[in-house]
Amino acid sequence: MRISGLHRVGLQVPDFERARDFYHRNWGLGLIGTEGQQASFRAAHSHQCDLQLCAGDEARLDHIALSVATEDMMRSLLENLERQGHPVTEAPRPGRRQGEALVACFDDLDGNRVELVVPSESDGPAAEATRDGEAEGPLKLGHVVLWSPRQTEQEAFYALLGFKVSDRTHIGMSFLRCNTDHHSLAFVNSNSGRTGLQHLAFDVGSIDTVMRESARMRDEGNPCIWGVGRHGPGNNVFSYYQDPAGNVVEYYGEMDVFEDTSPVEERFWGPEHKGDVWGISGPPPAPFHD
Ligand SMILES: [Fe+2]
């Protein structure tokens, strides 16, 4: 009994129009539609809304959504959470977004809104094409990384949903998997009490695509803030950017994939690991500091 993947991330942004244009025109996501001050996007290989933007006073994480295969499994997970003392804030109801059959909500231990979604077959309109004749854009939403002042408790909470720790680092990061991807969720320890989004990440496929997209983003006036490099945990090639609201967002490729049945030992990356196994990128810049 476990969730099957990261379904969607929702962000609040102060300048809605600018952020919407960035994710569509520059980041390359397909625009499913805009309703008032809310926009929905999807990646090229996705049948659902992967990213939702809504207007708000400040840049902040609005919610994360996790997918679960069936209604029965959703109800079992919710019952288990309640048995463990974690209240469900919204009981299962029909979903309203593309690719969402059923949705329920609860808060995690840092107060992040978490939606549990039973996906539907794609029944909405195709996403509007992004960049004519160019790369097809991000293939899928890959992972979300959250600040937390109570990382151990958060790991235990997300273990109730079936997440397992793949790797840890000496700077207080833990990488959690829920399917064959090395990580779909990660936590980074905050000594200052910070919660919410550290970064979100989209899989663009290969190292070649990461490099090409990095050059294109630079030429469009959105230079990479960290990378291109290759991470130790997950082995993925990375490149990080900032959206107009200041959210850090990653193009990555070639992440480790585990066989579903093989046991995976938790791995620790000590101080000899600087974040980029190639040694090209240097230390992470200010947006990664607590
Ligand atoms: Fe990442």
Précis, in short:
Helices cover 16% and strands 38% of the residues. With 290 residues, it is an alpha/beta fold.
Care to describe what's here?
The protein has 290 residues and is of the alpha/beta class. It has 2 domains: 115 residues, 2,3-Dihydroxybiphenyl 1,2-Dioxygenase, domain 1 (Roll), CATH 3.10.180.10; 149 residues, 2,3-Dihydroxybiphenyl 1,2-Dioxygenase, domain 1 (Roll). 16% of the residues lie in helices and 38% in strands. The strands form 2 sheets. It has a 9-stranded mixed beta sheet with strand order 14-15-16-13-9-12-11-10-17. The protein has an 8-stranded mixed beta sheet with strand order 2-3-4-1-5-8-7-6, covered by helices on one side. The longest helix is centred in the first third of the chain and has 13 residues. The radius of gyration is 18 Å and the shape is globular.
CATH architecture grouping of the largest domain: Roll
Largest sheet: 9 strands, mixed
What is the distance, rounded to the nearest whole angstrom, between the alpha carbons of the first and last residues?
34 Å
Are there runs of 5+ residues with pLDDT below 50, and where? none
Query: Level of helix content?
Result: 10-25%
CATH superfamily of the largest domain: 2,3-Dihydroxybiphenyl 1,2-Dioxygenase, domain 1
What CATH first level of the largest domain would be assigned? Alpha Beta
Question: What is the structural class?
Answer: alpha/beta
Number of H/I helices: 4
Shape: globular
Bound molecules: fe (ii) ion
Query: Overall pLDDT, averaged?
Result: 93
- List the helices and strands in order: EHEEEEHEEEEHEEEEHEEEE
Strand percentage: 35-45%
